Structure formats: structure tokens, C-alpha cells
Amino acid sequence: MRPLSEATARVASKNFSRKYIALGRLVKQWPEIMGDEFADKTQPIKLNYRKGTKDRKSTATLDVATSSSYATILPYQKGVILERINNVFGDSWITDIRFLASEVYETASIPHKRPAPMSIQDKKYLSGLLDEIDDPEFKERLESLGKAVIADLKVKENTK
User: pTM value?
Assistant: First the structure.
């Protein structure tokens, strides 16, 4: 006898893994799929997967949350959006999109503060570390990284 949880996990992972991997890829590549105009006004929320049979191919419908005004506009763009989505997956796996009038959660933008200028002592230390590097492009990149690390350390010291 084995616990029911083992069998359930095994069956669920086989049936749902493709669906959730696909939704994750959609969320990750959403700005690329929707473009600058609609990416921040829409959000993929659900993937309805219908398993195929002998007579019928497997299909998936994507539910997209958007404001009510965009829910009336975006169906006209459905063909282009489906083409972009299916280019991500390499086949026409997603067959339909439903635009639902709902609240779109915006990602919080983190205000970027200008880093404080490096002290003369920090500049000397960093240039001393990079003196023996001959490649100017590599040296420039390492210097940029070093400046960022030093600035980050200063911020952490000030918050303690």
C-alpha cells in the first residue's frame, strides 16, 4: 500500500506541468508578446487546457485580464497576439484568447537613486585592483562592476 498523495502528485505533475510551464513562459515574455503599447495594460491570468482525443487536437485558451475599455479593443488584435504567442511556443498550441475586464496588477517600480560619488580612497583602491588588466573594454566593465559593488556596500552600511 502506498499513500494516495504519491499517486496524486505523479498524475498531477504529468497532466499540469505543461500548462504551468507554458503560463510561466507567457508571463516572462509578456512584454515581448504584447508590445510596449499593451504590455502594462494586460496580464495573462489563466490557461485553460483541453486535452485532445483521437478526433480532436489538444487546445488551450488564454485568459487575459485588462481594463474594460481595452477588453473591447484587444479582440481586434487577437490574430496578431496569437501569432506572437505561438511563435514563442513554436506551434499553434494556444488557439484562442479571452479578454476579461478585470483589474490589472501593476508591478511596483523601484525608484532609482543616484549613487553617491565614490571617495578618493575608493577610487584609488579600485584602480589599484584593475591596474594589471590590459584589455580596455574588460577593464571598463570590471570598473563599472566595482563601482556598483562599492556603492551597494555603502548603502548597506548606511542602513545598519
Answer: 0.53
